[in-house]
Predict the structure.
Amino acid sequence: MTTTVPRGTPPAAPTPTTDDVVLQRRPGRWIDGWDPQNRAFWLREGRAIARRNLGWSIFAEFLGFIIWQLWSIVVVMLPAAGFALSSSESFWLISLPSLVGATLRFPYTFMVGLVGGRNWTIVSAALLLVPAVLLGVAVSDPQTPFGILLLIAALGGVGGGNFASSMANITYFFPHEEKGWALGLNAAGGNLGTSVAQLAVPLVVTVGAAGTLNIALAGWMWIPLILVAIVGAWRYMDNLSSAKADFAGSAAALREPHLWLVALLYIGTFGSFIGFAGVFPKLIADQFPSLSTFQIGQASLSLAFLGALVGSLARPYGGRLADRFGGARVTVGAFAVMAAGAAALMLTLPLQNFAVFLTCFLVLFAATGMGNGSTYRMIPSIFAARARARGIDRGSAADRDVARAAAAALGLVSAIGAYGGFVVPQVLNASQLATGGYSAAFIGFLAAYVCLMALTVVLYAVPRRMLAHQRI
């Protein structure tokens, strides 16, 4: 049941969890009294509202990932469009959006509580128009200075911030027992944006140009969809007055040493996923230039999209396996497979066998996706175990404070982990500059994954006193 109150009416007090939940709606699609834990309300109207908001949130975040990772595929097409870029400059165009996007995830986490989830979805989607339009203009002229290209690539980082605000928004809409699946869908839907960009751009810039190359379409093609996301958020999404920016919870999370440890693990899993997804088209073009794209009639197709697709689809299953076997065990397994994948790439790169190269990378992507889900699932378990180790009773006020810190940690860890999208391309860049190849980089990745696997075993897979002897 809902009622509408006049403009200017202050938010109502929180509604008790009873069967008589009555929502109050204010102008600007504000909702007061939201209580997803009330089962009768949830089944009557709450679930339908939450799912509608989830759908538009996924769509907006999906477009955010596309704009964030758009340069990963545009870069490999620039030489054919008349641009003369060094390999190092190409790596900077690929990695800088990740650096900016990771940094923006910190303020974006709080924007939902400050201005409302619907309102910020409209604003954050509208911001995607800026890098999309500028890319379309800049790549039309091969004389565009590299500095301008770098600035536009950096502006694409606004798409990376969308993940943090989208996840923060959706967590308020769903009850605890459905929150994990909703957040998993939201994350997977966003991650798929990278794969779709790498699949669609080569097709559109060739088919849309009647068999030639019109690289400007790589930016212009997304504008209608972004406009749909803006209008959809404006008409169909809602702001919840119960969604508040939790600065105290974030401060408490930052004081927890285990936040920084699990963030390091997330750099290894999600950071590897987004980093390798960004450089995969360039690695294929460097190692197998004749197989960089395939012609299907007038259309060009790059197989680079398979990496991000496999990693995105694997993420929900990593979370589901973590629910069953424990996040630490699944994360250990993910790092073990990632280490094996890095070792295989290191050993087989000299063979110049595309089938082996592609298979090794797809295994690596699948492992990063599984690790994304399992590492993220570890966060609330670690905070809960820390509370038990400190003697905090379940359901107490102190326990609720720990839960707030754990919720805040989800956003903070997602931001820190995204810096891997900058680190991975730059490690590959340094390897190529120093040795002329990528084998040295994969030796470094192998060592890092082994160390992170050992860290996970020692701290979280083996029951320890500091975690109340719980296996995470």
Notes: The chain is about 70% helix and 5% strand. The chain has two domains: 33-245, 246-472.
